[in-house]
Amino acid sequence: MACTSCQRQTVARGEAKCISMTLPIMSYFVGRMVPSDVCLNVLIPQGADHDSYAPTPGQMMDMHQSVAYISFGTLDFETTWRNRLQSVAPNMAWYDMNSLSQTTDPHYWTSPREALLLTDSLSALLKNIFSEKAAYIDSATESLRADIRLRQTKLNAIAEKRPDIAFCIYHPALSALASEMCMTQIAIEHEGNLPSSGHQKQITDEARSRGARVVFVQAGYDESRVETLAREIGAEVVGIDPEGTEWTSCMDTIISTFERLYL
To answer: Using one digit for the tens of pLDDT, what is the confidence trace for 197-207?
Structure first.
C-alpha cells in the first residue's frame, strides 16, 4: 500500500516522510510549502461528509508512515478518531492549527486573514519537522502568502465599493470570510437540516430585503435544495468547494461572482 495525496506522485512506503491530515484543503496549504518528495495522506476524500466518514483500512495502514497529523482542531471527525489514529501511529505527533484563529468558525481558512495566520503557523511547524528543507519552505511560504494577499486585496476592494453585500449559502461555510469583509451570510441549512417551511420563509424574506444576488452551494450538496430560493429572490446559484484542494480557485470563484453580480 502506498501513501498518496492530491496532485502528487505515489510515494512508496519507507521512501519519504508522510504528513497526514483530515481534509483536502489542508493538503493545499501544506502542499504549497513542501517539496514533492513529502507524502501527503488526506483521510477524507473531496466532497465526502466528514461528519460520518470513517477511514478505510488502507488509510489506517498509511498512518504508520506519518510523522505528523495536522488537524484543523475544529472538526468532530478529528475528536472522534484522534485516539484510534494515534494508536496505529504511536510516534506520530499531533498538531491542532486553530490555536491562533481569531474566529470560532470551523471553516476559518475561508478568511484571507485566517489563511495567512494558518500559513505562518504551518510554515513554522513544517520547518521544525523538515529542518533540512527550511530554505525551500521559506520561499514557498512567501509565494503562498502573496497569493492569499492578492485575494484579500481584491475582496477588500469589493467590500469598500459595496459594504452592504449579502449572500446566501446552503451550509454556513463562509462565516469567517463574511466576518472579515463585513458581509452578511444567510445560511439556508438550519441545525444541519433543510429548513422548515416557516424558516424557509424567513430566509427568503431576509435574502430579498438585503438584496442577496447569489446562492452558494458547496461540493457534495444537492443544488436542487437551493434552486427554489434562488428563483424566488432572483439570485444565481454558484458552486464552490471551500474544503477542496484549491483555496485560490475557490476564492477566485467567490471574487468573480461578487464582481459580476454586485459591482
So the answer is: 888 999 999 99
